[in-house]
Amino acid sequence: MRGAKGLVAVLAGLALLAAGCGSTDIRGEKSEKEQKAVQAARRFDPAILREDTAEAIDAEFAARFAEKQKAAQKLYREEDGKRILTHKFGETELPDAPVRIVCIRMEDPMLALDASMVAAYDFEQYYLHDPLAARGVQRISINDENKTINLEQVQAAKPDLIIMRDSFSKGVYQDLSKIAPVAAFDLRDYERSLLALSMVLQSPQDGEARLRAFYERAKNDRIRIKGAIGESTVALLRIMNKEVRLYPYATNDINRFMYELLNLRPPQMVVDIDGNDQNNAISLELLPELQTDYLLVTTGYGPSSRQSSAVARKRFEAMQQDPLWESVPAVRTGHMMNVDAMIWNAHSIISKELAMDSLADWTEEHAEGRE
What we know:
Radius of gyration: 22 Å
Strand content: 15-25%
Number of strands: 14
Helix content: 40-55%
Strand order of the largest sheet: 6-5-4-9-10
Order of helices and strands: HHHEEEEHEHEEEHEHEHHEEHHEHHHEHH
Number of helices: 16
Shape: globular
């Protein structure tokens, strides 16, 4: 292969850089504080098998629903004739029956609730572009480099309420608050946020019904997936511009749903890296030790950093020419699935449904003995 030796050398250098000079094993010992954080994050013990019957899943999800509902109720209250939402930046007094709502990176739960928006974040490659365009929603621009919002566009939409994800700075929140009341939500806990959003929109019954429908879909996909691969192990690897990340069992928001909702089995390495402080960066030299039956690979970034995704894709193309990559067990057996970074890196109901559906379809097609 032309230039193979040079390519391997370059990739090895990049791998060393990504892993912190190559000397740090992300499976290393953790401090007492980190161990406590891991235990707090783990909803289930990875060593204990859970049932995948419809009855067992229904009971599991019913308990989860009650927990999320209780958590959402702590964010919203009504007192002295006022409606108030508590969030990361403080509290917001909400208008009654808002009509002109501007949405900023909360488009997924708003669409899931079939809620009306006059303007929202959008671009042509967005996984939500078609439904937003079909509704005639005006487009709000966001500068992904400095995380700023086009305030003129927000002002022009004449909102009486702004719904935003709280991943922006407090300064952005304050600027938006000068235009209209702002309700901010933590989408990392997308189930709680969906319920709290439905309260803000004065339709809590819609939020509850939508979350129950989400759990029903998760149950069906879980039964399909586990019927195809049983207790085979599954891991998620993310290819980025300057590093490769292996995501842990319970301490990352991107893939936690795989192990909690779908009851997928994690390989030991994924369990061991829970709570590490190395940003989950893994060297190429360590990848052949990733003993997982199925490997999911996401290349690039989500909606907020789509310009960098092309660089990540080129990096992955180069990685696939490295003999180290070919020695990864799941790659060698053909059990590797490329997943859509735009969807998998998002945090919300619709994106999770799309991810679960695609995973169910793929596992049924590629399970051992079915290729």
